Structures are given as structure tokens and as C-alpha cells.
Predict the structure.
Amino acid sequence: MNKHGPIAVMAGALVGLLCAAATTGAATSATVNVTITVLPFAEVRMDSENVEVYLPAGGGNSQPVYVGGTVTANCSVMLLAEIKAPSGAPGRWFATPMVAEVAHPGTHFDRLVRINVLDVPPGYGGNVSIQVFGSKLGETPMPNPGQVVVTLMQN
Amino acid sequence: MRLPRDIARGIGCTLPCAGILLAAAMIALLATAPTAQAAPVVQPYISVSATPASLDLGTVPQPGTYDSPAELKVHVTANCIHGGVMVAVTPLVRAEGGSIGPAQVFLRLPSTGTYISMSSAVAVTGPAGPGIFDFVLKFRVVTTLADAAGEYAGTLTITCSAAP
């Protein structure tokens, strides 16, 4: 008999005894697999709720106006801007997100959105609402947009 | 005297296999050995089961407090005094990284309806005598923006031990 023979026999006996012990007595615990899903979330807060955009004397194109804000999210988001101009408002209005993607939650940007107004005739004044959304790439915008009301001023 | 190797070779199996057979023979010998007193003995018995075996706590719409509508039914049977039922949870882990810690998971006590953090194992019931016990567990999860969007998974363990 080689030198490992007794060890192998004892190991086998131990396994046998352990198996026997495991099958006596009652189960006293139960395990349950648990899952939970956390949905993407984003919230945009603008630093200012109202901004004024000045047109040059005689109308025309404004200088860009920048509005800062904070984006909080539990995922990477793209920013989208949506402009709600009054019906029949003349000219063209642009709100351009200056941040292409927000990767970290709770990030503040000094220049979150740039606002431009083009081709507005003299004498026009009005308010335009801009909403800035967080959105996962290729998905619908999430709720909790930041909002800015733009008041058009004529020099 | 025949060596174990010879015995193993004689019955055509390996040495560990022979050891297992040896243990089985020892157990059979002990089980059938005559005892001085043959009074019947009822062994303590405790059983715990939970339904369902996989619990989906649902979907957290936004960071904050989320009361899951999911219910876990627990069934305990015992023929002896036991020390009560304890429930513990592992961290809920997200495959892409990150986890929701046990301290963020709360268990509603069936007796009072209050929620208790599962940062450590929660005693759902106190010690009790023999009998059948059924109760329903509900859960609350508190998330923050630091808990990234995604699916998380972990394990609940419900334990009932005999009273010391």
C-alpha cells in the first residue's frame, strides 16, 4: 500500500460522515433571489428662470446668451432643448445645449444652453419658453426639465 | 489482515470510495446497535420555506424611497422551541458595477408594520414554541443618484434556529 492510501481512506470516510450528517436534521433557512430595476433618471435645473435677449437697434440677430444650470442624473444623458415660441412669433429662435453628454450626476455647467434669435423685425417683444431635457441616447426625454423664459428686448 | 487498498481492489472501487463505504458501514452499525434504553426520541425539527423563490421587487422610477409592491410569503414549522426568524440580505449588485447596500433595504415587520433597515440581520419574530407560522414580508428600497440605473440582484436569507 502506498503512503497516500490511508489518507485517501480517511478522506473518504470523512466525506461519508459529512454527507450523513448533512442529511440528518431539518433545514432551518431558506434563500430567495432578489432583483430590482432602477430606471434612468435625470433632472435639469437652470441657474436663471428668466433671461433677456437684446436685439440690436433696428432688429436683426442677437448676440448669444448663455444660461448655466445643473444636471443631476443616475446615468449618462444627452441634453435636448425644446423651444415653445408664441404662435406666429416672427424670426427664428435657437436654444443649443452646450453640453453634449453628462456622464456624472450632480454636475454644474456655467454654460448649459446658448440662446440666439435671428431675423426678428423691429418692435417685436415677447416671451419664449425653453425646456432643457436629459435624455438617454436614442430614447425619449425624461421628465424634470429645466425651464427658462426668454424675454426679447429691443435696444 | 487485508489492507484497505486490497479491500478496495476486491470490490472494484477507489480508495476514497472505499472510505465512504466504510463510513456507511459505521453508521449502519451505530444505527442498529442495541441500546440500554430503547425509549423513542423525537428529534427537534424546524423548517423554513419562502414563496416565491425569486422575488422581483419591481422598478424604481426615480431616486428616493420606493415601497415595493412585491410580497414574500414565509412558512415556518417547528416541533420545538425556536429562537425566532431572522432575515438578512446581501448587497444588490449591478452587473455593470455598483451595488445597493443592505442598509438601503428596509424590511416591514409583520407585527408592527414599521420598516427596519437591513444593515444587519432583522429579527422578524421572537422566540416561539412548536407550531406553524405564516407571515408576509414587504420591502422598501431607498436609492440616491449615486445608484446608477440598471438591474440589481442579490439574495435574501430567512433563518430560524432552535432555541439555545
